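[agent] plan:
  1. take the single chain provided in the ticket
  2. run structure prediction with default settings
  3. attach structure tokens to the ticket
  4. add a short note for the reviewer (M.T.)
[agent] executing step 1
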Amino acid sequence: MDVLEASPITPEIVAEHGLSDEEYDRILKALGREPNLVELGIFSVMWSEHCSYKSSRVHLKTLPTEAPWVICGPGENAGVIDIGDGDAAIFKMESHNHPSYIEPYQGAATGVGGILRDVFTMGARPIANLNALRFGSHDHPKTRHLVAGVVAGIGGYGNCVGVPTVGGEVDFDAAYDGNILVNAMTVGVARTDKIFYSAAAGIGNSVVYVGSKTGRDGIHGATMASTDFSEDSEEKRPTVQVGDPFTEKLLIEACLELMASDAIVAIQDMGAAGLTSSSVEMASKGGVGIRLDMNQVPCRETGMTPYEMMLSESQERMLMVLKPGREGEAEAIFRKWELDFAVIGEVTDSGRMELVWNGETVADIPLGPLADEAPCYERPYAIPKALDPLTDIPESPDIGADLIKLMGSPNLASRRWIWEQYDQQVGADTVQRPGGDAAVVRVHGSNKALAMTTDCTPRYCYADPVEGGKQAVAEAWRNLCAVGAKPLAITNCLNFGNPQRPEIMGQFVGCLKGMAEACRALDFPVVSGNVSLYNETKSEDGSSLAILPTPAIGGVGLLDDWQKSATIAFKREGEALLLLGHSTGHVGQSLWLEVCHGRREGEPPAVDLAGERRLGELVRQLIAAGLVSAVHDISDGGALVAIAEMALAGSIGARLNLPTAANPAAIVFGEDQGRILVTTSDPDTVAARASASNIFTARVGETGGAAVEGPGFSASLADLRTAHEGFFPRLMGSEPTPEC
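[agent] step 2 finished; step 3 output follows
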């Protein structure tokens, strides 16, 4: 054994591994002795927040996860739903927040690579990537650098690996100045009779390592993702993994080729905690033991120790268990694709993880304490009380000027600068690209399509966690319905601050409460997800800046006919513009209040889940019947912003009738939930169907002209487009884009 790994374990070494005194005592009891450094490292990553969910497990159990169409819910590499005709959609969202702040290009790139592996590990061919990004204030000195690196990393990896990046969201807020969020989502398609799981089985079966060699990059990545940042965060750069999308592409093809046979018993991505988590999870899920010969692990650096091999998070690696006698067949496939292949161990009946190196046993750990018996905390929490309702509602001296200002503001401006760096069409199945309510990707060789979206409004979640959690799910539902898809299930990425602070834990519990209520009301179960805690930064004076609570929702829905999907663009002049859903002029927490009046105040808009369900079902029926030509969800910025987005997308203006109200600006910029705009040449039929569904309808104008105008205001399409398209080019200036 290496001299370092044979050295005694001191309290300082325990602390450096992110373990508390109480947790170390649990290790001593589990082993019946003091651990060596290899064993301590294995416990530290398996018991990290990132791998064990020790602060969140008890609350995650409250989320609904079942439905007749759910094939596999949380607990595997990704969620699986039945989409008919023997097809399944497999998808998940995960975070790569801390690495992306330290090294934005590689942090974002390897986030994409990791989520791709989670999906194709299950037997799916990835068909789409999405992302949900949060950056600090647009004028923060690091923001431009971080945006450039993250966008280049996402594009560089996704473009090179050949999976289209079709949707997502990007927000700016000072709460993310010291801790950006990079959440990546992948959707894939598989046959329902060719889905692969991770539970190891078959005593004596070979444990096989495939993909890239193991290096020293990413060691302690899971531990780093389980602590808050301090001023020395730059020193953590060596914990960031380095990705190779070209190797990932080879790995996808090799795995799918082997999956076409019946040689695989179990397969697992080497993600967070690398070889440690993959081997522990496979063995523990299968109720078996595992023995690994560390001398057989392919390494790209000399002198690597078992500690380094087990904790490395080098990318593009997989672990699998093969049926007896199939090793030669599998090796031939991976060698053909120029990938490493090595038999590194076997399945045992010991119920333990055993590591051998140079003929010596360097780790011998019972699997129970590493996995199912890992610490699980019920941390104290206090759900924050919702902010008081807004009573002092301002007015607008110039609605047209406010609209132009909003359209050019950081959180409403066009994201074209970003998504034009992504290959959106590779695979030739993309039906709707970024810029609409949801992306739509055809299921290859069929008329079906999957719609997908990412949604969350963190300022709502901060103002009222329960209502904000509801709204995040409801908006994902609404966006899928707005393109004509039946919403089927969600994944999530739950981004919060330090769970040891009761108010932060309260945000987490409150958001989950709202999410669960919405999922049940909408028959919209959670099938996969990720928890990312400790997203806050400590300053020199010891104070902490936590991010806004950000439970990002990734929604997936199904269209029976991709050709009937709806888009947001106005199609022709002279059509009626109808608003479906009631407007009260709720401006609490609205972007209009913040951007035009410098105030972030009040409670967020309430969510009527029964109304959301009726609205979504109505809109899908209208789209299927061909009664509407354009459809757009109303969210940030309110109805007038949504109308301007529809007008710009179609290069056709709108003439509006403002409602009679004491404060018309509050009506047009209010962010009441449960509303959708449609255009139609048959407004009477649409209104009649809406009435039959108990949905309020108002005819707010008609399409036409070269401006968005109403009584007392006008904003030309030219001015709106200049404002809308100008923010990102100004922000990024001459910032160089890193090469792939």
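[agent] step 4 note for reviewer: The CA atoms of residues 484 and 518 lie 20 Å apart.
[agent] ticket updated
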